[in-house]
Amino acid sequence: MKAGYVAFVGRPNAGKSTLMNKLMGQKVAIVSDKPQTTRHRITGVRNEPGGQIVFIDTPGIHKPEHRMNQRMVDAAVDTLREVDVAVLVVDVTEKPGAGDRYVIELLGSAKCKVIVVLNKIDRLKQKNQLLPLMESYAKALPVEAIVPMSAFHGDGLDALVKELLAALPEGPPLFDEEYFTDQTERTLAAELIREKVLRHTRDELPYMTAVVIDQFEEPAEPGEPTKIYASILVDHQSQKPIIIGKNGEMIRLIGTEARADLQELLQGKVFLDLHVKVRGDWRDDERLLDELGLRR
Ligand SMILES: Nc1nc2c(ncn2[C@@H]2O[C@H](COP(=O)(O)OP(=O)(O)OP(=O)(O)O)[C@@H](O)[C@H]2O)c(=O)[nH]1
Ligand SMILES: [Mg+2]
After folding, report:
1. For the chain, which has fewer Cβ within 10 Å, the N-terminal or C-terminal residue?
2. 12 Cα: distance to centroid of ligand 2 (angstroms)
3. What number does the ligand 1 atom closest to the CA of 38 have?
């Protein structure tokens, strides 16, 4: 039997969390079309007849401009020291740049094995565009395998699982068969709300918002709702009316969509109370970052 740790790493927006969710068969990481969606490490365990794979989703590696971003990048880089295999997720529709070279350098000096996933192939007009990319990654890094993928459509998943099991060391399972993820309901709730904020905001706003759960009350009796009180933090006073929207339309939309997801997550009724709070420079506030669960 095989068992080991596998990290998804790469540039922001490459599809790491989409891939993680597909491999877990359930949403453990939020996804959006904005870069820098994932802010902390997320662990999930998948049991296979051939062994156990412990996945770790990490924030996209980018140039950090705030304490928050430094913690995000550190979380990704530190993870490389703890895993058996790093899966480098690459968006094939993006031109390679300095950021990609930096990630390749990091992986080159890491001790773990590397598998490259060339993601979003559904968006390639010509499949022969893949070959030069495969060649360049094979040249740039000692790789175990290069797997073309459409994480969104689930194409290439089986091939990746096969390569992962081949690359992992022999050993007994690392986690109990029942263990699924390290994400608590409280964390997932905050993340699902943040996902809706990301979905409905543009420009700088997605980067300047965070979600804090102020209170999470389990139902006292069966059939009663779980009561969740949460705050959406913004950086400036001027951003508050954007999140609230005209006549409160925006925050109602965010609330409605988040509540639907939360009810599915918690398998029951949810009462959701959302507030918008201004916390200037929260992205550099170490205490708040601790509270948000971003590792130092
Ligand atoms: N067309 C297409 N889109 C994809 C695919 N995989 C992911 N996406 C989209 O790419 C965007 C980013 O996906 P995420 O999974 O959030 O990317 P990520 O690498 O986790 O991003 P960060 O957390 O910001 O580092 C989302 O809009 C996804 O729906 C794919 O295979 N095909
Ligand atoms: Mg992500």
Report:
1. C
2. 7
3. 23
Residues with CB under 6 A from ligand 1: 12-18, 31-33, 35-38, 59-60, 119-120, 122-123, 150-152
Give the residue, by CA position, lying nearest to ligand 1 atom 11: 33
Q: pTM for the complete prediction?
A: 0.98
Which residues lie near ion ligand 2 (Cβ < 5 Å)?
A: 16-17, 37-38
**Residue listed under structure tokens 């989409």:** 18
Distance separating alpha carbons of residues 15 and 151, to the nearest angstrom: 7
For the stretch 43-92, pLDDT in tens is: 999 999 999 999 999 999 999 999 999 999 999 999 999 999 999 999 99
What are the chain's domains? 2-167 (3.40.50.300), 185-291 (3.30.300.20)
